[in-house]
Amino acid sequence: MVEAQTWTTRRGSNPRLETTEQVVDIPATPPGGVRNSGNAIGSYLSPNVLTALIIASWYLSNIGVLLLNKYLLSFYGYRYPIFLTMLHMLSCAGYSYAAINWLELVPLQHILSRRQFLKIFALSAIFCFSVVCGNTSLRYLPVSFNQAIGATTPFFTAIFAFLITCKKETGEVYLALLPVVFGIVLASNSEPLFHLFGFLICIGSTAGRALKSVVQGILLTSEAEKLHSMNLLLYMAPMAALILLPFTLYIEGNVAAYTVEKARGDSFIIFLLIGNATVAYLVNLTNFLVTKHTSALTLQVLGNAKAAVAAVVSVLIFRNPVTVMGMTGFAVTIMGVVLYSEAKKRSKVTTH
User: Where does the record locate the signal sequence feature (predicted)?
Assistant: First the structure.
């Protein structure tokens, strides 16, 4: 999927720029406030229980979409990652419309200018590239190795921030990136199911997430152009679907006809596709709810732990072989991400 990418609205102002999640960003809520979603449920539950349920839902949706994507693309034999990503985008567009216009989780914001539209379209194109590459990589790589590569997002974020905005970090921050890179090199050299093409497109997906976070920090900086994450998803999702449509038709052929034919013989695929697309949206919804009920920093910590949890769960379910050296490399990478996050926090405190 969706990569529920974690993004920033202003350069260096959001600690979630360094997380490794494939989810859509959560910019600052625009003036006017956000409607108190979940009050009906919250009136029956204590705040701690409600927060725990939201965090559990976040974990289930994030890990669930990874496992469903892996099962569909690798084990079930549905080898159409572009079409699958397009279904994710259509699902996100439909559910976002319902959440904003009917459930009123957040106030509806409108695109105010052609310039703002083009900026969102550009972000949608980068988003498409990242998510398609991520889904495609699951055809060739185990989820555990996919997550290890995805954990290197801070490394690419720092590179793009320097190349595009000339933003320099402190020496401590750059030093913290060394174990991030070293760990993935260690894991790659000892991965039993290593696949070069899968590895390269997974790197592309990770770099794409980092690029989108940096580009968004440049493009959507003015107060007038800032969009809440739910509104941004509402506009980005249909744009992304339109971008993906010609690619799936050209590369993957008449997937819709194949899917209908497949459903006639096995109706389970309908359940799989609908469930997969729904969970892809829930990744973004729970990402918003976790930030609303806790903080961006909590989301960052959860994101660091999620990669490890997803890797363990995938190994238990799919039984892919792992090595001690591979697990050590993954652990070193996660440790590097944690050190990087701490170094970033200290550097921001120093600069302020």
Answer: none
Say how far apart CA 56 and CA 189 lie, in whole Å.
34
pLDDT tens across 160-217, in order? 999 998 888 889 989 999 999 999 999 999 999 999 999 999 999 999 999 998 988 8
**Greatest distance between any 2 Cα atoms in the chain:** 63
Contact 20, 303 (CB under 8 A): yes
Count other C-beta atoms under 10 Å from residue 35's C-beta. 12
- If one counts every other C-beta atom within 10 angstroms of the C-beta of residue 263, the result is 14
197-217 per-residue burial string, b: 16 or more CB within 10 A, e: under 16: ebbebbbbbbbbbbbbbbbbb
Closest by Cα among 77, 83, 92 to 22: 92
Other Cβ atoms within 10 Å of 284 Cβ, number = 28
C-alpha separations of 350 from 71, 188, 337 in Å? 46, 36, 20
> Please, which residues have CB within 8 angstroms of residue 72's CB and are 6 or more apart in sequence?
78, 84, 272, 273, 276
Give the pLDDT confidence of 262-277 residue by residue, as tens digits.
999 999 999 999 999 9
Residue type, 276: N
196: Cβ–Cβ under 8 A, 6 or more apart, which residues?
none
Q: What are phi and psi of 46, to 5 degrees?
A: -70, 155
The identity of residue 115, as a single letter, is R
Distance from C-alpha of 284 to C-alpha of 105, rounded to nearest angstrom: 13
